[in-house]
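so my prof wants the structure for this chain in the tokens format not the other one, which i didnt know existed until like an hour ago. anyway here's the sequence
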Amino acid sequence: MTSIAETFRAHADADPDAECIVPHDRASWSRQDVLDRATSMADRLYAAGARTGSRVTVIVEKSPEAFVLYLACNLAGYVYHPANSGYTDAELEYLIQDAAPAVVVCGSNRSETLDGFGDYETLTLDQDGTGSVLDETDTAHRPYTAQPEDWAALLYTSGTTGTPKGAMLSQENLLSRAQTLVKAWRFTKADRLLHMLPIFHAHGLFVAGNTCLCAGACLLFEPAFSPDHFFDRVQDATCFMAVPTLYGRLLKDTRLAPSAVGHMRLFTSGSAPLDAVASDAFEARAGSRILERYGMTETLMLTSNPYDGDRRAGTVGPPLPGVALRIRKDDGRIAETGEVGIVEVSGPNVCKGYFNLPEKTAEAFTEDGYLITGDIGVMSEDGYVTLQGRKSDMIISGGYNVYPREVENALLDLPGIDEAVVFGVPHPDFGEGVTAAILGPARVDEQAIIAQARETLANYKTPKRIIQRSDLPKNAMGKVDRKVLRAEYVDLFKTGSE
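here's what i got, hopefully its the right format
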């Protein structure tokens, strides 16, 4: 097998009537139903101008049809390019013009606007399962046999530190990760994954979706997360994948108990750090320990806490099979055990580079082929990786490096703080002032929190200001946008030093 589609076809041939997708409000689809729909969509895309290697840009709301559209592209050798339907027209114009697709599939409410951004055919797909991409055609797509190096997907980085870059993922990148996760997380055709994540992002599309397609597992498909839908459907599930924000919402729900979720064999968390306090609280309430892992758009999954063994709260586990991971210090040497530095990785899951950006691609890789992730991490003696943030988020205060995650963990240990995000803003004396934005159930005393934090943190790491907020700016995957916070508080220390 050389592709996700070929692997799924083998499952369909073996048991065509097995349940594959169970929508939240419609009859279930068998494996053969899914394969037939994917083949029909591949034909329709071909009739619209897609060919092997063509980009197909997809800007639609989550639906079973939208997921099958991804499978259709993989089946025919089209390069799947998903984009967040919540993006503005200006944001989408940049992505479409950069990707240069042969076909754009979007919601019918945006088809006229998006039709004018380039030379491509526009098709529609709406959340209710209607649209022109589903129209039947007498034209059949060309037979396609995938090669490992074939370009399969184009996913753009979030752009929080600059212009979004398009990571080019190959058939080998996608299939190798899915096969690894099937083994690492013990997925079988008996599994039923409660799917509540977006599918424009690697987490919901490739980690959840591809793993189930390769295992022959069933997807219980929900358009979005809600606690009510979770508890309505979790009795029929065996696995759940989510971001920390969703686990935080479940922890606030009185229905979370072993009686509701004790039958579940796997909960995983990713896309943003899961703090140890929330991990321990979930285990106490649900009777299950969340498995945290780590990946990137450019690499898919890199590390994972073990399915059997010590799932350490606050860590993302050892490297997965096939992944070479090392930590490099600022002075260029490879870090020793326990030393902090930049994570570098290589393996069959790592993309080959960025679309139309040879200079950025060259900058992203070392001479011996390791991707420089930009993540700050440390590895224990037995191989567990702990992340301490992005290099771009590191604060330099008074000449000292401050890693936000270390400060956030210290704050989360204090009473009255549910969430904490640490960032640096300009400071007249220190260059950058360590600042924390927090959420909590009640008002807290800023100076008291600072004093408590100083008991466990060096003075240069201790926040100079604590800002209590009613919410934090987050993207669709639950990651806090520090860029927004830095911009909002850029003048916080303008009048003098603290």
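also thought this was worth mentioning. The first helix runs from residue 4 to 14.
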